[in-house]
User: Which sequence fits this backbone?
């Protein structure tokens, strides 16, 4: 029993490359709500869930990662080393937590004009902008999608061991930048159950109707 417990605890230890896996429905909902033109590249593709959902939604998508974890990873490459750059139009990613800031800034830097960068990030990213993330208000942030219900993002080891993750405890959102965009960002509530369950509409707008936010 103690050995089993020890093994299970090991599965949940922090992954050295921040290999945590988001539920499929996060990217499924993004591709339902956000339009993309041209090739989508996930430079931290892990098991390739973003690539799978992008392709299922009819987009052309490829993945790379510093470690080849699945057949959906076309190439092993360190995104921050600038060693591999496909002919891409957009980047969609769940970046490694510890390098998320570097990944996002690099992606916005290299995405072609009009192209989009979408990253799934802790919702807390939106605060603290006056201290550690002062570049954010000046960035071409176009849309914020707070995700509900909270997604669970267990280490890849847990998924690979066939364990079904429970409920998430941390708030996440998709942040979408568009190179050249200069108006205030919009908030769009993303219910990842939408399309599966139909919920009673309490009047007004549908859950995916865009609303102007006070976020500037
Ligand atoms: C949060 S996970 C992405 C999970 C992925 N969406 C999936 O479907 O499994 C982050 C990924 O970034 C990769 N990674 C970490 N550092 C990297 C780097 N410098 N360049 C490219 N990939 C990196 C990790 O190997 C890991 O697979």
Assistant:
């Amino acid at each position: 029993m103690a050995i089993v417990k020890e093994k299970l605890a090991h599965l949940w230890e922090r992954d050295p490359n921040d290999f945590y896996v988001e539920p499929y429905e996060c990217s499924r909902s993004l591709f339902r709500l956000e339009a993309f033109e041209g090739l989508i590249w996930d430079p931290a593709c892990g098991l390739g869930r973003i690539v799978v959902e992008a392709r299922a939604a009819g987009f052309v998508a490829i993945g790379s990662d510093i470690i080849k974890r699945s057949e959906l990873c076309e190439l092993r490459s360190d995104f921050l080393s600038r060693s591999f750059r496909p002919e891409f139009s957009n980047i969609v990613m769940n970046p490694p937590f510890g390098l998320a800031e570097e990944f996002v800034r690099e992606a916005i830097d290299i995405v072609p004009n009009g192209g989009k960068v979408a990253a799934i990030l802790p919702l807390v990213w939106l605060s603290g902008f006056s201290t550690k993330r002062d570049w954010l208000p000046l960035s071409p942030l176009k849309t914020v999608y707070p995700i509900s219900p909270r997604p669970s993002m267990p280490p890849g080891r847990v998924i690979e061991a066939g364990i079904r993750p429970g409920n998430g405890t941390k708030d996440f959102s998709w942040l979408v930048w568009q190179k050249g965009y200069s108006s205030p960002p919009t908030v769009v509530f993303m219910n990842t159950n939408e399309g599966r369950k139909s919920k009673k509409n309490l009047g007004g707008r549908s859950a995916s109707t865009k609303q102007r936010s006070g976020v500037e």
Residues 144 and 175 are 5 Å apart (CA to CA).
